[in-house]
Specification:
Blueprint: E1 2-7, H1 12-22, E2 30-36, H2 42-49, E3 53-56, H3 65-78, E4 83-86, H4 95-100, E5 105-109, H5 121-128, E6 132-139, E7 149-156, H6 163-186, E8 190-193, E9 196-199
Parallel strand pairs: 1-2, 1-4, 2-3, 4-5
Antiparallel strand pairs: 5-6, 6-7, 8-9
Helix pairs in contact: 1-6
The chain binds 5-O-phosphono-beta-D-ribofuranosylamine.
């Protein structure tokens, strides 16, 4: 199964996926393409080092979100991509794109959804003083950070935690559950019925 990973920044989740692939831990999944909207992103270096083809498309020059997404979809079609894995991709996808790949786009979010949606989930959880937070892998739907949940894992927030230490804890579990979820998808073990996900044993 051909996979495209979408990134914008550091790419530590991309790295976790690359490592999983190297260990044969993505079943028949293959990261065929890394798509990025920022030409200077460190994630691109990680992709190049792993010998994965990259496609960089900056948003400037596109007046409409959908135009940008149509360009990307063309490339995905060309490469016969069957699964889109968002890994820190900082653009909101158009309805066109989400509908075209419905049930085939995954995202990882640094909180226990539906709590703390949005771009500052770790900070928001830390500042709210909650006892635990975590990470969630979910399907992407038209509504931001709201699609059916696939996997979730929590971390305890200790009195001694700082924002940085919490961030570190959350990233660590993202790097564990994201490759796990991708493998389950590739194996056809994630059944999506309406809003509900069942994971087959
Ligand atoms: C992660 O925290 C992920 O949950 C969020 O964006 C961050 C990406 O980090 N969607 P990285 O680029 O994978 O290091």
């Amino acid at each position: 199964m051909n996979i495209a990973v979408f990134v914008s920044g550091n790419g530590s989740n991309l790295q976790a996926l690359i490592e999983a692939q190297k260990r044969n831990d993505l079943a028949e999944g293959k990261i065929k393409l890394v798509v990025c909207d920022k030409s200077g992103a460190f994630a691109l270096k990680r992709a190049e080092k792993a010998g994965i083809e990259t496609f960089v498309l900056e948003a400037k020059g596109f007046s409409k979100k959908e135009e940008y997404d149509r360009k990307i979809a063309e490339v995905l079609d060309e490469k016969e991509i069957e699964l889109v894995v968002l890994a820190g991709f900082m653009r909101i996808l158009s309805d066109f794109f989400v509908d075209k790949y419905a049930g085939k786009i995954l995202n990882v979010h640094p909180s226990l959804l539906p709590l703390f949606k949005g771009a500052h989930a770790i900070r928001d959880a830390y500042e709210a003083g909650v006892e635990k937070s975590g990470a969630t892998v979910h399907f992407v739907t038209r509504e931001l950070d709201s699609g059916p949940i696939i996997l979730q894992k929590s971390v305890k927030i200790e009195q001694s935690d700082t924002m940085e230490s919490l961030e570190e804890k959350i990233h660590k579990i993202e790097h564990k559950i994201y490759p796990e979820a991708v493998k389950l998808f590739v194996e056809g073990k994630i059944i999506l019925e309406g809003e509900r996900v069942t994971i087959l044993k």
